[in-house]
Design a protein that fits this description.
The complex is a heterodimer of chains A (about 150) and B (about 250). With about 150 residues, chain A is an alpha+beta fold. Helix content of chain A is about 30%, strand content about 25%. In chain A, a hairpin with a 5-residue loop joins strand 5 and strand 6. Chain B has nine helices and no strands. Chain B starts with a helix and ends with a helix. The chains are: A alpha+beta (about 150), B mainly alpha (about 250).
Chain lengths: ~150, ~250
């Protein structure tokens, strides 16, 4: 009876470990494809070709945002991962959270001049929640931290 | 403790024991949910960037966490059924599936509602959203698989195996935001300090809601399991006695 139970336990472990192994190998094989965007560093390293549709993600570089057009719906900005920048140009509605220093994910393609022509702009939110008062006291106490660049 | 655990393995004792726990559990749940929701939805200060929108997190985060917890629980009871042939374990696993599916659907829907104003889209095929959608399909698949069998035992075994296979998805959901680039944000580092990101005033209400939702989940789970027990044991003497007792009671009233 006990041997029977142990056999069942072995089968259960086999199912779980087997499934984990199979899916694990699949995910390792798909690794790059699962990423929802490329970083500016990957783009400048030539991971994507001109004209190919893809997403690029990074921060809207502080001081780089330029609004054009009559109603300011045409925007140009630098998306940065603090190692490399890529110039993004977009015309259309922007999400509420889009601003300098915020995460951004742009969908589009590179044109001949190496400018990323975006067809859609998404804002990426970080995992920090706080009230305006807390944010203000944080900013007051902020010390300059050097960004570490992983090439 | 062991004795208590073994007693819950008997359908009849599970039924009578839970009878005593249910009122307590219900009161605790009402208090926790009421406090947490009122606090989180009305009294915590708005977020410095998202304003009032971020309050959706007080529903979304507990639901998403519980959806995964429910799956883990279903898989544990499935393993318990496969190894020790405990019938109540299968009934609990069966009760988990529809509750888990509903909770996952709420987590996805609230996430989408939050995504429209925040991200600018209600859906993106990133690793976090996709793996959570796969969990919803697993829940629905498990419900469908069980109903495809005429024999209770065959259905229970098939569902237990599928539940165990799906466990692999849980670490993928949890670590998707660390392993890959996603639009979904990473896990928040909760801070004990009042002057840092994610201060206690932000996350304490979420814990109240979280435990309240857990209580609601346990109540739903117990009620569903009790129904299943009555259905499967309907020919047992104790169920007939129970029904007879109930009829007498309502006859007097």
């Amino acid at each position: 009876m006990l041997a029977h139970r142990q056999q069942k336990l072995a089968i259960v472990l086999f199912i779980v470990v087997g499934a984990a192994l199979a899916v694990g190998l699949l995910l390792v094989a798909l690794n790059e494809g699962i990423n929802v965007f490329y970083t500016p560093t990957e783009v400048s390293a030539g991971d994507v070709s001109q004209g190919q549709n893809f997403r690029v993600g990074g921060m809207v570089k502080t001081g780089s945002l330029v609004k054009d057009g009559l109603d300011g719906t045409e925007v140009n900005f630098l998306a940065t991962d603090f190692c490399n920048d890529i110039l993004v140009s977009f015309s259309g509605p922007l999400p509420d959270l889009f601003r300098e220093g915020q995460g951004v994910v742009a969908d589009g393609a590179l044109n001949e001049d190496g400018v990323f022509r975006a067809t859609q702009i998404l804002a990426k939110h970080d995992e920090n929640y706080m009230s305006a008062e807390v944010k203000a006291s944080l900013d007051a106490a902020e010390t300059e931290t050097a960004e570490v660049c992983h090439q | 403790m062991w004795q208590w655990f073994l007693q819950l393995g008997s359908p009849r004792l599970f039924y009578s024991k839970t009878d005593r726990y249910l009122p307590w559990l219900s009161w605790i749940t009402v208090i926790l949910l009421g406090t947490g929701l009122a606090w989180g939805l009305a009294f915590t200060p708005p977020d410095y960037q998202m304003g009032e929108n971020y309050r959706i997190a007080y529903i979304h985060v507990p639901m998403a966490t519980l959806a995964m917890g429910c799956y883990a629980m279903m898989a544990c009871f499935s393993a318990g059924y496969l190894i020790w042939k405990i019938k109540v374990a299968d009934m609990i696993a069966k009760a988990c599936a529809p509750i888990g599916a509903s909770i996952t659907a709420v987590a996805l829907a609230t996430g989408s509602l939050w995504g429209i104003p925040t991200w600018g889209t209600w859906w993106i095929w990133d690793a976090r959203l996709t793996s959570t959608l796969i969990m919803l399909f697993l829940y629905v698949g498990i419900i469908a698989l069980r109903s495809a069998f005429d024999s209770i035992d065959s259905g229970a075994r098939a569902c237990a195996v599928l539940s165990l296979v799906g466990v692999v998805n849980l670490p993928i959901i949890k670590y998707s935001v660390d392993w890959w680039n996603t639009l979904h944000q990473g896990a928040s580092n909760l801070s004990l300090s009042d002057t840092a990101a994610n201060p206690p005033e932000v996350w304490i209400p979420a814990f109240f809601v979280g435990f309240g939702v857990l209580g609601f989940f346990l109540i739903a789970l117990i009620l569903r399991t009790r129904n299943e027990i009555l259905l499967r044991e309907r020919r047992a003497q104790w169920v007939s006695d129970l029904v007879e007792g109930n009829q007498k009671e309502s006859g007097h009233a």
